[in-house]
Amino acid sequence: MEQDLKNIIFDFGGVLVDLDRQAVFDAFQKLGVRQIEQWNKFDLAPFVALENGTCTEADFYQQLRDLADLRPEITDMELAHAWNSMLVRIPKRRLEALLRLRQRYRVFLLSNTNSIHWEYSERHLFSIMGLSAQDYFDRIYLSYKLHLQKPDEAIFRKVLEAESLEPSDTIFIDDLEANCVAARNLGLQTFTPLEADDWMPLFL
């Protein structure tokens, strides 16, 4: 890792939190979702709108019911449980690594995520060491609050400007190459891990 590195920007899914997308398909199928194979990339309008913060959770749940022709008696809680089933764990070793990195660098989170996933993560995933999500980062930037999503370069500019970061001494770590390409276009260093732990040896 370059010696002049001062800042680290982490993605969330597939970098800090382990994901199980098949668990989501299975959970929705149990609720009676039809044509689940069409949801493979979660690029349907309700998911995009939720991550952009342009629809409410209530609207999201209703759109799911309409889209999937779900039984009306299925509750919002059941839908939330199914949707959150993709979030498996943040291993303690990664949380400990974040705390160590904060002693040497400014550390940020930049995630395409939604209010349902984030609230679940705060309650159940970041709390395993008795701390909160805010204890692991200098600042947290989430797509649904910014109304912007990676790989739009605007979301990276937002973070760089808000934190007065120099791109050349900042590294962005994301498991999607398209997001890293956008960051490199703005002069950031990048790393695309193939496995969630791959970034940890960078800072040994």
Give the DSSP E fraction (strand runs of 2 or more residues): 5-15%
Distance between the termini: 9 Å
CATH superfamily of the largest domain: HAD superfamily/HAD-like
- Category from helices, strands and their pairing: alpha/beta
Poorly predicted ranges: none
Percent in helix: 40-55%
How many helices?
Answer: 9
Mean of the pLDDT scores?
A: 91
The number of strands is 7
What does this structure look like?
Helix 6 (115-125) links the parallel strand 4 and strand 5. The chain is α/β, with parallel strands linked by helices. It has helices spanning 21-30, 45-52, 57-68, 76-84, 92-101, 115-125, 143-146, 153-163, 177-185; strands at residues 7-10, 18-19, 87-89, 106-111, 139-142, 170-173, 189-191. The protein is globular, with a radius of gyration of 18 Å. The model has no long low-confidence stretch (mean pLDDT 91). The strands form two sheets. Strands 5-4-1-6-7 form a five-stranded parallel sheet. It has a two-stranded antiparallel sheet with strand order 2-3. The termini are close together. The chain has two domains: 7-18 and 89-203, HAD superfamily/HAD-like (Rossmann fold, 3-Layer(aba) Sandwich); 21-84, DNA polymerase, domain 1, CATH 1.10.150. Helix 2 packs antiparallel against helix 3. It contains nine helices and seven strands.
